[in-house]
């Protein structure tokens, strides 16, 4: 059974930065209420489940008005198969909902030697040389989508300020001014040493499996996007001897509730009336491009 898609302005795409907890229930943040859960929505590309509708009380929002937020589990990926088209289904839902501001949560591998495990990172650009084959655009001749400012500096600045308030002081917080670039690898296999070297040589500071297609699709629907992420693998870690288990005793379970709290507070603090460029960076092509044929 599918459910009607509610109209909302904000969305949080959960990922590995919140794995291991029920988001947002386990954060137990005052002013945050789950209105509905276990929602499934229909899209032209198939149904997508694991959604919640969350309300942020006006007592914690920037404009004093309640905010309803759509939340999806783990990028909308199916639980029982590898299906990279899940991202397109998620953004089809966000497009139908009228979402204009998106937070994408994830963990990342560092390709910059200066970025260490547990550092908090807000990205500014991506390297995704194939772009996404799972586009939402209605053909090649209807819209142009700019590749500039794929990450909103206004939203990113709010995330940075919020992270500096909550993130452990022994780790660092990198905001939009750091200009960090994230490379994309579809996964689910982790990067090989040669791949990590190649991405780094192209100018990437970080790499993960989800953020780049989300940034592209946010541009395609005219939404502004930022990310909440922290580092779980350092660059030098790609060159250590093979080991078991693959994922060691990292701090993910300790940091996931903190990252989740940052996402909720940042979403509540986003300005309601700022000059967001997201919609303007997708422009319609002249009708003659598709009428004259």
UniProtKB/TrEMBL annotation:
Q: Name one GO biological process term.
A: nucleoside metabolic process
* InterPro entries for the chain: MTAP, Nucleoside_phosphorylase_d, Nucleoside_phosphorylase_sf
Question: Does the record carry Transferase as a key word?
Answer: yes
Single GO cellular component term:
cytosol
Which GO terms fall under molecular function for this chain's record? S-methyl-5-thioadenosine phosphorylase activity
Alphabetical keyword list: Glycosyltransferase, Transferase
Ranges of residues in domain Nucleoside phosphorylase? 88-235
What PANTHER family does the record point to? S-METHYL-5'-THIOADENOSINE PHOSPHORYLASE
Q: What is this protein called?
A: 5'-methylthioadenosine phosphorylase
Question: Which organism encodes this protein?
Answer: Methylobrevis albus
- Native organism taxonomy: Bacteria, Pseudomonadati, Pseudomonadota, Alphaproteobacteria, Hyphomicrobiales
């Amino acid at each position: 059974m599918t459910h009607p898609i509610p109209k909302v302005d904000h969305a949080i795409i959960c990922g590995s930065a919140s794995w291991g907890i029920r988001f947002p229930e386990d954060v137990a943040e005052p002013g945050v209420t789950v209105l509905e859960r276990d929602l499934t929505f229909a899209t032209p590309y198939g149904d997508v489940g694991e959604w919640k509708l969350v309300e942020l009380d006006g007592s914690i929002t920037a404009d004093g008005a309640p905010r309803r937020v759509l939340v999806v589990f783990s990028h909308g990926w199916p639980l029982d198969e590898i299906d990279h088209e899940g991202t397109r289904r998620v953004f089809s839902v966000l497009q139908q909902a009228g979402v204009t501001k998106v937070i994408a949560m994830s963990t990342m591998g560092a390709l910059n030697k200066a970025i260490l495990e547990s550092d908090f990172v807000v990205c500014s650009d991506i390297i995704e040389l194939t772009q996404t084959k799972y586009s939402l655009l209605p053909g090649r001749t209807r819209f142009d989508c700019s590749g500039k400012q794929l990450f909103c500096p206004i939203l990113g600045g709010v995330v940075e300020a919020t992270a500096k308030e909550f993130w452990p002081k022994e780790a660092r917080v990198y905001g939009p001014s750091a200009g960090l670039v994230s490379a994309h690898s579809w996964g689910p296999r982790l990067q090989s040493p040669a791949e990590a070297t190649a991405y780094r040589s192209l100018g990437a500071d970080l790499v993960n499996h989800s953020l780049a297609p989300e940034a592209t699709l946010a541009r395609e629907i005219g939404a502004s996007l930022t990310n909440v992420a922290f580092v779980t693998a350092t660059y030098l870690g790609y060159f250590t001897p093979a080991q078991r288990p693959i994922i060691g005793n990292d701090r993910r379970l300790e940091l996931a509730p903190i990252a989740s709290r940052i996402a909720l507070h940042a979403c509540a603090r986003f300005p309601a009336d700022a000059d967001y460029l997201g919609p303007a960076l997708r422009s319609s092509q002249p009708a003659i491009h598709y009428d004259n044929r």
